[in-house]
Amino acid sequence: MSEQNGGTLSSAEHLPPGEGRALWFFTDLYIAKRVSEDTGGAFTLFEVTSPPQSPPAPHIHHREDETYYILEGEFEFLDEDRTFTAGAGSLVHLPKDRLHSHRNPGDVPAKAVVLYTPAGNIEKFVEDAGKPATDPSTVPPPPEEAEIERLVTIAQEKYGFEVPPPPE
Fold it and tell me: Rounded to 5 degrees, what angle do the CA atoms 102, 56, 64 make?
């Protein structure tokens, strides 16, 4: 990384495609492009790739807003009780304190740049709950029930997320 002063870069930085810390989070590939230490806590930026027919995971962030800029494919979003689809070139902002989720309803991978404000909490959660993506081309299977329960516990107890039980 470039030299920084209080989270402000002292020179330009270039991250080529695919570069950054890559983690599998559920079945999505998260590549950290900028994190709290890079931005003085202002924001976290991930490149997120969701495989086809990825499962939704409704949750509530109580600490950060989430903004998607969709690069490829389509994402289906839940915002409280409304569901909508957004494709390449779309921007979707999901404010904190609202039930939301994203998923790829399509037959091809979907990719987005996802901005979280403020930084810190979300990247620590993805790091803690995710697994290193040593081979980003091989999508892991969906997590087993015990793994999901572990992730929900971490999310709620350590990172201030709310994960309601799935509807009956």
Answer: 50
pLDDT in tens, 109-130: 999 999 999 999 999 999 998 8
Nearest one of 57, 138, 139, 135 to 101, comparing CA atoms: 57
Phi/psi at 4 (nearest 5 deg)? -130, 160
Using a cut of 0.90, tell me whether the model's pTM lies above it: no
Q: What is the pLDDT of residues 92-110, one digit of tens each?
A: 999 999 999 999 999 999 9
Q: Are strands 60-61 and 65-72 parallel, antiparallel or unpaired?
A: unpaired
C-alpha distance from residue 75 to each of 29, 78, 102, 103 (Å): 14, 10, 6, 6
Terminal alpha carbon distance of the chain: 47
Spatial separation of the C-alpha atoms in residues 153 and 163, rounded to whole Å: 9
> Could you tell me the domains of the chain?
21-135 (2.60.120.10)
The SS3 of residue 37 is helix
Q: 69 with 38: CB under 8 angstroms?
A: no
